[in-house]
Structure formats: C-alpha cells, structure tokens
Amino acid sequence: MSDFSRSASTRPALCRECDRVMHLPARAPGEAAHCPRCHHHVAGPAQRDMQRPMAWALASLVLLGLVFAFDFLSFSTRGVGHTMSFVDAAGAMLGYDYPSLAAILLATTVLLPGAYLAALLYIAAAAQSGARVPGALVLARMLRPMEPWMMADVFIVGVLVSLIKVVSLAEIEIGASFVAFCGYALCLLRTLMLIDWVTLWDALAPVPPLAPEVRAGRSGRRQGLVVCAGCDAPFHDNPHHRCPRCGRRHLSHGADRLQLTWALIVTAAILYIPANVYPIMAVTTLGSTDPQTIVGGVISLAAHGSWPIALVIFVASIVVPISKIAALAWLCRIAGRGGHADSRSQMRLYRLTEKIGRWSMIDVFVVAVLGALVQAGALMAIRPGAAALAFAAVVVVTMIAALTFDTRALWRDAPTGDR
Ligand SMILES: [Zn+2]
Ligand SMILES: [Zn+2]
C-alpha cells in the first residue's frame, strides 16, 4: 500500500494562475486548498485513499459500455419513423458528409472520457498499491488537459433541447441507452470532483526539491521558479524547460503566448461570420425544405411559443460566443499592458469565460441528434448545414484561446508581498 500520509505534509506549491509561491498545508480528508491571492483551486478535496474516485470511475465505464448495448431514441410521425442508437448520431453526420462533426461528437462525448476513465483507473491503482507501473507518469500528465473537452453533460442538454423541439411534431420514445448515458455522465462528473491530483501525483513520484531560499508569499518568476503544466510541481527552470518529475514542459511566461491567444480570438471572430450567414440545419416538412440559420432558428422557436428553448439556444449560440470573444480580447489587452489594478475581478471574468465556453456546443449536439433522429423521408427530415461545422470550430477555437491565455500576466503588477 502506498503511504498517502506522505503527501499530507506541508510543502511548497506555486499557483499556476497568479504565480504566487505558497505553503500547501496538510489537509484532513475532504479539505481543499485555495491560493490566498487569486483563490485558484490548488488541491483537493483530500482523499483517504484512491478507492472512492476509482469506484466512481469504474461505475462510469460500466454505464458507458451499456450506452452501446441498447437503443438511444425512437422517432415516428404518421406511422413512419425509426430508432437510433448512440453511434447513429455520429453515423448520420458521416452520411451527410460532415466527418469532422462526427469526430467532434464521438471524441467529446465518449472517446476522450472513456480513455480518461480507463487511464485514471490504471494510475490510481498504481498509486494505491505503491507499485511503479510503466507509462503511469506519461498518462497522468495527459489527463488534466483532457478535462475541459469531456462534454457528456453538454450532450445531455443537447438531447433534451432536441426532444423538446420535435416532441410536438412526432412521437418520441426514450431508450435504455439514453438512461445509461445520463448515469454515465453523472458518474463522470462525480469522478472529476473526487480526484485529488496533488495526492495522486505525490503517490506516483516525489516533488522535486526546491532551494532553501525559496520564500512563500513571493512571485515564482522573481525566484526563478516555474510551474509544471502536467503535474503542477514547482521547479527551478532548467535548460530543457522540462519538469524533473513528469518530463512535461513548464508554462512559459512571455509575449509569445499572448500573441497566440490573440491569433485564436481573431480566428474565432472570423469563423463566427459563416456560422451565422449559412444555415445550421435544413428542415424538410411534407416535401418543402426550410433552411435555418442560428438566429432564424431562435426567431422561429420564439414565434411558435417555445420560449425556454429559444432562450437556451440564444444564450448558448449567440450570447456566450460573442461575450467570450469580447471578454478574452479585453483580458488580452490588459495582459499586454502588464496587468491592471483589479486583478481579482479580471480573474473572475476569465474563470467564468473558461467554464461556460463548452456549453456553446449545445447547438452542434442538437443538430447532430436531430439529423440522426428525424428521418422520415419527404414527410419530415432534418439535415445539418455548413454553419454547424463553422460554429463547432468557433467553440473549439475559443476554448483553445481561453486555455492558452496566461492569467499570470494579469497579476504582474498586483501586490504579492514582495514589492
Ligand atoms: Zn493564485
Ligand atoms: Zn511535471
């Protein structure tokens, strides 16, 4: 058995969001640790051992297996209809010549989370037993960057929106696969909440030692310290810029990253034009086809009295992407000038932007589900349009922009106690 109390002793840590060096205190089970300056969630909740997250990860994987064993949804109108499995949603996208949308759908809902859960079980079992197993460090450092891309919860909302959209036009039946998918998504969320990465990493490999003159309450940059992008360990920068614990490169400071974020913001803003100009889907009813843009879809839903759904799509597809692009551009401008007096509210804005961005994918999932489900020939059919691809690209590019943004630039002029 691994000695988990080893990781419970006080040790230095470096906040990846504001670059403040701190003492990470010993934590009782259930306790989390936050950065005293920016309130970044640094560790926890602390676990007695790895059994609880492992149990939830296993439950999640079993339910994911059941998703593929049953029917997902059934649809019928005037005696014509069909039943779809979960894989049919991606298959329909392929059939309509949108392989990239099929890939995004499968990757974000089942492939990435499935790989994440299996790898987590492997490394948590290694940490629990104290055994050195091959590839554990490489796998562990790959897992956290995957977390924002796991969108099983967003997909469920997408399915619910799709069902409300068509329920008045046709008969819908919910299959056992959809119930299993909801269970899988909930267990996945619970697993993510329970993993204590600090304890897990400390059980896999020891933290690199720091020079005795390193002081808490000061910025890492002024003391030649950097934080690892993979395992969060602070270390003295070396010629290879690689973490002595996991081998991953550290988070670099500097203008290059800001330029990259700017480039991604501009790309997203440009892609948002075709996403609104072209139709996102085409609805065929009794032989006549009606192409709908994002805005057109919202107006048509509101005109038919579906206010709640119109509001969901309006917020997810119009308000969120536009405010995300605007907020990131504003933050980049401030970061370029070397920070601003009110770092804490900027940090809050950044975290909000990062959290809500993935929910814009709802409309893409709605198009995928409706495209696969509503197939009754000339009676009624829905096919995705070119805007679905452009809009998915907007969501992906803005998410990458938020992830590349270096929040430490917002804190450069904020007091740390070392001025
Ligand atoms: Zn901080
Ligand atoms: Zn590392």
How would you sum up this structure in a few lines?
This protein has 419 residues and is an alpha+beta fold. The chain has 13 helices and 13 strands.
Characterise this structure.
By secondary structure, this protein is an alpha+beta fold. The protein has one domain. Helices cover 52% and strands 12% of the residues. The protein is built from 13 helices and 13 strands. It has helices spanning 51-67, 86-95, 99-129, 136-146, 152-166, 176-194, 197-204, 255-277, 294-303, 307-336, 343-356, 362-373, 386-404; strands at 11-14, 21-24, 33-34, 41-43, 73-77, 80-84, 171-174, 225-227, 234-236, 281-285, 288-292, 375-376, 380-384. It has a 4-stranded antiparallel sheet. A hairpin with a 2-residue loop joins strand 5 (73-77) and strand 6 (80-84). The longest helix is centred in the N-terminal third of the chain and has 31 residues, at 99-129. Mean pLDDT is 89; it is low at 1-7. One zinc ion (ZN) binds at residues 15, 17-18, 20, 35, 37-38, 40.
